[in-house]
Please model this.
Amino acid sequence: MPRVTLIQIVYNSRKFIPQVFEAALNQTYKDTEFVTVIAGNNDKSKEYILEHFPNVKVIDPGYNIGFSRGHNEYFAQSDSEFFQLVNPDLIMSPTYVEEMLKVFADPQVGAATGKLLRYDFENNKPTSIIDTTGVVYSKSGRGRDRGQHEVDQGQYDNKMNVIAVSGAGPMYRKSALEDVKFKREDRRYEYFDEDFHSYWEDVDLGLRLTNAGWKCVYAPKAVAYHGRAAGSSIGGYKKFFSFLKFHRGIDSRIRKLNYKNHIFLFLKNSPCLYLQFFIRELFMLGYITIFETSTLAAIPEMFRQLPTMWKKRKFISKNRKIPISELTKLFS
Model:
């Protein structure tokens, strides 16, 4: 039986720990270990875990290490064959890991996601609202979770390949991660892009795996429930005022990371610099200039990081193993 490491980056997520940890530790698949990396402990999450879940391995770097580096440090040192990421607000059904592993019987599968539905933590109950069934990505550079906000009526019950998977509850094959890792100037290897820090680093990794010839797969029989702190607005651009209200409710730091990283995601991974991307970005720049001026503060950092991102683009292009014609077909 292959060894599976469950990993969670804990950032002041004490309120979710009882339910999330109980679900993670009561999987039907037993050859697992559960590792937590403490990125924020203002609410004493670490002490709670040590007291109530002594079988969970706790790593505390002493600072906010971030989603990307927090995972990278452990990926590099672990000899587990598979890694199951557990978002702080993800409640996995008992068979989640078992069902996820089934799709990895195909040796070309590098990443997978299950069917994630929303969990209503306020009322402590699962819902039938879809959170993600894999990621879809377009030539305009827009990425989104497939089916998000829809009511689950079985419309996504077929296993299929997707271009990337969400970071809420994915499983990765270690050898696939090793195949797409990037050597940094400080000689460490990164799997998730640490220049992203947070937001879009999950889709970036999925696109890099797809570029390298690995499959990302949606496994519908693996079911979990996700609280989802941030997602897309219902209706998107088509319902402008609700879109505006939704975005204004997002923390400015998150908006800046989202803006910068979604551009780098496209520049790194798209086989062609499609005209649709530049048209969309022109409208996006106009939008933030008028309605989200604080987001413009991301632009100087974007230009500072641009040479590094272009270097990464060259690395991805050099190591691409899927024909561009096949890759383009995966764009929505």
Observations:
- Residues 259 and 295 are 7 Å apart (CA to CA).
- The chain has a mean pLDDT of 92.
- The chain is about 40% helix and 25% strand.
- The longest strand covers residues 109-120.
